[in-house]
């Protein structure tokens, strides 16, 4: 999948996000690289990034940024496993549109509600994919994507643990909880719209 290949390439070239000059064109808001001092940088207001400079691709591109090998491997694996099933059954057009929608919504949620200036990863998209599969299967009452129900339960438990701060206690670092929730909600809405238009049989 091109999404996985791009994520791997960016992770290695940027040394997992540590080379700011390489990831800056992909971040949700623009970074003033000249302001870098002791690990702190200045972020431009969102209205400059999107409305003044028309850099709308930044709504999507944070999904390509990963901050560790574990972060990259875990996300790419899940995108491949779940995404390939959606692409095979529902087609590439549905898959890529679901990725775009869930990426935008998860990034917006993390920015506005998560209080994060620098974030990235495919986890919001993964939640979008899982939310989509969950609703489609629930609506059709069929195991269309051959995903065990335990995956959906794990997804929801992981989301709750993240918001409770328990994941941080066990050393998982800063988890983009709002991105996960935004991705999940967008996947559910996408599935409801898709199900209404193209009723599964």
Mean pLDDT rating: 90
Uncertain residue segments: none
The value of Rg in angstroms is 17 Å
Task: Report helical residue fraction.
Answer: 55-70%
Gross CATH architecture: Up-down Bundle
Q: How much beta, percentage-wise?
A: 5-15%
Q: What is the CATH T-level topology?
A: Rhomboid-like fold
DSSP, total strands: 2
Report on the biggest sheet. Answer: 2 strands, antiparallel
**What would the principal axes of the Cα set say about the shape?**
globular
How are strands sequenced across the largest beta sheet? 1-2
SS-based structural class?
Answer: mainly alpha
Quaternary structure state of the chains depicted: single chain
Q: Note the run of SSEs as H and E.
A: HHEEHHHHHHH
Question: What features would you describe in this structure?
Answer:
The structure is a single chain. The protein is mostly helical and 201 residues long. It has helices at 2-13, 20-23, 46-52, 69-90, 92-113, 123-140, 149-164, 166-169, 177-197, and strands at residues 31-37, 40-43. The protein is built from 9 helices and 2 strands, in the order ααββααααααα. A two-stranded antiparallel sheet has the order 1-2. Helix 1 runs antiparallel to helix 4 and helix 5 crosses helix 6. The mean pLDDT is 90.
Summarize the structure.
The chain is mostly helical and 201 residues long. The chain has helices at residues 2-13, 20-23, 46-52, 69-90, 92-113, 123-140, 149-164, 166-169, 177-197, and strands at 31-37, 40-43. Strands 1-2 form a two-stranded antiparallel sheet.
